[in-house]
Amino acid sequence: MSVPEDPAGLRGPRPPDCAFAGFSDDPPWLIDPDKLPWLDGIDAIRTRTRAEVPYLVRRRRSPPAHRIVRVGWTLGRAVGAWYLVDHGRGQPRSRIGLSRRLRTAFGTLGPTYIKLGQILSSGDGIFPEEIVSQFRLLRDRVPPESFDSVRRILEAELAGPLDATFAEFDRAPIAAASIAQVHGARLLTGERVVVKVQRPDVAELVRRDLAAMSFFAPFLVGRIPVAALANPPALIELFAETIVEELDFRLEAANMLDVGHVLAETDQRSIIVPRPHPRLVTRRMLVMERLDGFAWDDVEGMRAIGIDTTAVLRAEMISFLEGAMLYGVFHGDLHGGNLLVRSDGRVALLDFGITGRLGEQQRLAFLQLLIGGSTNNIPIQVLALKELGALPANADVDQVIRDLGLDKPAPEVAALSADELTAQLRDLTKQLLAYGARMPKELMLFVKDLMFLDGAVATLAPGLDLLGEVALIATYFTDRYGARIATDIGLDPRAVPIDLDGLRASMGLTKTEQFTYRELQERREAVRKKFDRREP
Question: What is the value of pTM for the model shown?
Answer without folding.
Answer: 0.85
